[in-house]
Amino acid sequence: MASILITGGTGLVGSNLCNLLKSKGHNVLILSRSKTKKTNVFHWDIEKKHIDNEAIINADYIIHLAGAGIADKRWTKSRKKQLIASRVDSTNLLFEKVKELNPNLKGFISASGIGYYGAVTTSKTFAETDSSGNDFVSEICKLWENSVNQFNTLQIRTVILRTGIVLSKKGGALEKISNPIKLGFGANLGTGKQYIPWIHIEDLCNLFIEAIENNNLNGIYNAVSHEHCTNKTFTKTIAEILNKPLWLPNIPSAILKFILGEMAVILLEGSKISSKKIELTGFKFEFPTLKKALTDLLK
Ligand SMILES: NC(=O)c1ccc[n+]([C@@H]2O[C@H](COP(=O)([O-])OP(=O)(O)OC[C@H]3O[C@@H](n4cnc5c(N)ncnc54)[C@H](OP(=O)(O)O)[C@@H]3O)[C@@H](O)[C@H]2O)c1
After folding, report:
1. What is the tens place of the pLDDT at every residue in 44-83?
2. Are 158 and 220 contacting, i.e. CB atoms less than 8 angstroms apart?
């Protein structure tokens, strides 16, 4: 049994991960911006550089998930700053506190995103050795990963999971994509040819646990399922599972760009991402195909 401190443990991935870790007998501690009297929930204030010391001292491992939601609000100048600071300043603060209070931490595991490679639609399959893209989300991921890599200087095992779109029953992207289809108003976005790298939430949580329990995991891994699918396939598979018709024409890119501004790029572009590296470690996906994942989540 290990004591695992999770930042962002109240979020979509974090809350599922906490439950799974507890069911496996681990002691789970949460670091949150909210002040609460709940046991095992500790407070931090990133701007004020405050973390309840106990949280750091008692942790064997840290899983870092905290970050303002990338697709929650339009990317204004101040929102962009917040998206970066909530990930990078938080990692820097964790690093300073670990260095001071718990330099023998056994591992630091952090989320990152497949947005690292840039939002482009190409025939290329991106692997961990590929360089970063040139857009805003790649910039976030690059800065985030650089801050995480500081933990290597303390000889702490560091794992970064470049995560695809997380599919879950409640919340997250799947709810947003499947709701209009449920109502009979589903449509492909833009050309529909852009890839959507995805992962079932259960596989992602298992992967975080693997990163804790398997000392051989070190460095960067793409956390995506190995079945590549386009926006068109994705929409069609949901409609088939829900037994709903798809009759509307594609939603034009220009409309999405008008509504969402620069953020539209995350819906309109996407390439294939390789899961080879994590699979070569022996990790087995419970939901390797989109049909299996969506049937589990939507039925
Ligand atoms: N979900 C996906 O499809 C997906 C895909 C790729 C990468 N990721 C990354 O994986 C991580 C977890 O994803 P998720 O879907 O679980 O996210 P989420 O549901 O939005 O939860 C993130 C958590 O971060 C904390 N947070 C929110 N705004 C913050 C801010 N301004 N400063 C500091 N902390 C803040 C919140 O915890 P408190 O309120 O308790 O502080 C929140 O519960 C995120 O960093 C996300 O970027 C997610």
Report:
1. 999 999 999 999 999 999 999 999 999 999 999 999 999 9
2. no
